[in-house]
Amino acid sequence: MNDPFKSKSLGEILSPKPAGDRKPVKWHGRPGETKPLWAILGNEPPIAWQLEQEGLARRQPDVVPVQLAQAETNEPFGPPTPALVPIDVPGKGRAYFDPEVAANVQDFIDRTRQAEMDVPFTSGFRSTIGQKGLLTDPTATTPAPPGNSLHEAGRAFDISLNNKDKTQRYSEKQLKEIVDFARQSGFNWGGDFRKPDPGHFFIEVPEGIGNRRSRIQRAQEYYRNGLDSR
Amino acid sequence: MNCTLPKLIGIVSLSMALLIFTGSTVALAQRPANPTGTFSSMYYNEEGGDLLGIEIRIVYTNKGFQGTIQDAQGEPDELTLITATIDDDNNVTISFTDPSTANPVTISGRITKAGIEKKTGWGMGGKILKRAPSYWEERRRTSPP
Fold this sequence. Notes:
A: alpha+beta, two-stranded antiparallel ribbon, about 30% helix, B: alpha+beta, about 20% helix
């Protein structure tokens, strides 16, 4: 009687024929092919080799390219996390940000919209070439020369200090309200700098100001690898 | 008396010279400033890594006074052509189309030797925009000119 609970070997599960009906497997080397160790020793061939002979391993190529694609990235456990994500910002359209701060940016936009301010953005992520365009000065060393600005990491944005129509500047009261919204959304304000930059908001890298480079490099690399075409 | 005449001549000559000098100085001071030139508050804020300020350049052409304007609030806007109408007292009206809003904009003020004063329009309440070399020629860091 056939016991349905009897455990089966892998060969029995995969093989279309009962194990007992199988012919002894022999290795036939193809020209130029090295004889495998199991054949030299006269052992049973490995199951993978048997499956290959029976054509069952043909399914595998579907899997291989995916594995290779993953291996080419630095993220072996899944698709790579984007270094920058797009957000539609008022006054500018699409701007890019570090995914770590994207929710904060959206929260700030939502808060200003709820207050019917719709603050226009002037800048978000900036390429290092763009940053250099603002200041090409090899003597610039501190603290945000090209290659060290949080804009290059997608962790800073600028707003226009003029209202949406640019007809007038925000009053001090309005600007304070905007700054409060930004702080509630987790941002620091450039107005607190020694030389104030009142339209600038940022979130420092978690590793600290001295460790911006790796974040910047990651974002810049992502940008260079085709952010423009996305 | 013999001593007094040369003294008198000296005094008169000195007075005349002083008068001529003062007159020419006053005349120079009253002469309107050159309406053309570059007026800039643009500078690079190192801490934020941002370019801030505004720059206006006015030149003369066979179609009148024209020039360019560039506003920077983080990153510089695209360079925009302006038309400047300037009267005999150097009162100036600058007209252009805002590149970010496509709205027509008018800035008014008075051009002096120091810069464009008493500006109104485009959120430029009253501050002087100083005559200064272009930021793109003389890159400034930390503070405006």
